Amino acid sequence: MSGNKPVLLILAAGVGSRYGGLKQLDELGPNGETIMDYSIFDAIRSGFGKVVFVIKEAHRDLFETRIVPKFRSEIEIGYACQRIDDLPGDVNPPDSRSKPWGTGHAIFSARKEISQPFAVINADDFYGYGAFQTMAGVLEGLDPRSSEFCLIGYRVGNTLSEHGTVSRGLCGSRDGYLTTIKELTKVSRSKDRISYRENNDELTLDADAIISMNFWGFTPRIFDFVERGLQVFLDKQLHSPDAEYFITQPVDDAIKNSQASVQLLTTGEKWLGITYAEDKAAVVNGLLKRIDEGQYPAKLAGSLNRKAYSAF
Predict the structure, then answer these.
(1) E strands along the chain, which residues?
(2) Strand, helix or coil at 221?
(3) C-alpha span between 180 and 171 (Å, rounded)
(4) DSSP, res 10
(5) Would you say 311 and 41 are in contact if contact means Cβ atoms under 8 Å apart?
(6) Does domain 7-304 have CATH number 3.30.70.120?
(7) At what angle do helices 222-237 and 248-256 cross, to 10 degrees?
(8) Beta strand pairing status for 210-218 and 118-122?
(9) How far apart, in whole angstroms, are the C-alpha atoms of residue 26 and residue 61?
(10) Which of 23, 38, 79, 104 could form a disulfide with 19 if both were Cys (CB 3.0 to 4.6 A apart)?
(11) Which residues, 6+ apart, have CB-to-CB distance to 79 below 8 Å?
């Protein structure tokens, strides 16, 4: 079914420790839709031909019963299980390791499921139809063997939770291409000021600064970079129980070493997402607003066919 159409890789193996549950399966739309439902709906009407879920094996039955039946007739479905012991070489994880290794490792987990250009998103983030259209347009023109990647960048002021801090990747660019990406932690808004923590300092961030929400466009070449970077990470952090291997690390290294280029594609879309339980009301209201504006049907399950997509 997918042919040469791009693939959508959804990172859905998180445990939702700050949220208090499996937020990727939380029903937020007016008829029980998850955020993933809207992302897959947008991907199908933008021309994607396959979706691959990165999940924990224990959650597969939940996806098979609650997500997949809505889309199986419209798009090819695949799974990649993120296992703590799925590591390059002969490396074995320590017994003390209980949490996933991070977004870079999640993408590494999907290496056997993808052979064409693909986009990466988080399961619990809403990106907007315009962003999916932009991404699909770029991916459809990429040679699967190339090291030409892309990233949808968002204004940081459009991506913050009102209920606590978040992590964001700060983008540096030149002539429309990413030059650096730096992981910022504890980003928050207080009154009219956006700030983040670096070491023991609190620094200010402009509301129009472009950040990453993990909406990447890759070719299969990224798996080589990810695997090499993962080996370096494990050499240093194997026994650090909370260390995470972010996808920003191998991408940043590839850019600095002139091994890859990343086109930075900005969008004015306003992010919706659930980092904390208190974020849920804002997401519910944001989805209702978009439905009222005619961007989405009130009930996705009744509109999941090719003819219906063209109406939105």
Answers:
(1) 7-11, 50-55, 76-81, 118-122, 125-126, 148-155, 166-174, 177-190, 193-198, 201-205, 210-218, 261-267, 272-273
(2) coil
(3) 6
(4) E
(5) no
(6) no
(7) 110
(8) antiparallel
(9) 15
(10) 23
(11) 52, 53, 55, 60, 63, 113
Which two tokens mark 305?
């066919």
Q: What is the pLDDT along the chain (312 residues), one digit of tens a residue?
A: 456 899 999 999 865 444 445 778 899 999 999 999 999 999 999 999 999 999 998 899 999 999 998 898 889 999 999 999 999 988 999 988 888 899 999 999 999 999 999 999 999 999 999 999 999 999 999 999 999 999 999 999 999 998 899 989 899 999 999 999 888 889 999 888 999 988 888 899 999 999 999 999 999 999 999 999 999 999 999 999 889 999 999 999 999 999 999 999 999 899 998 888 889 999 999 999 999 999 999 988 656 554 555 555
Q: What is the pTM of this model?
A: 0.91
Residues 206-240 as b or e (16 or more Cβ within 10 Å = b): eeebbbbbbbbbbbbbbbebbbebbeebbeeeeee
Q: Rounded CA gap, 128 and 295, in Å?
A: 10
Q: Identity (one letter) of the amino acid at 11?
A: L
Token reading at 223: 């798996």
Residue type at 158 in one-letter notation = N
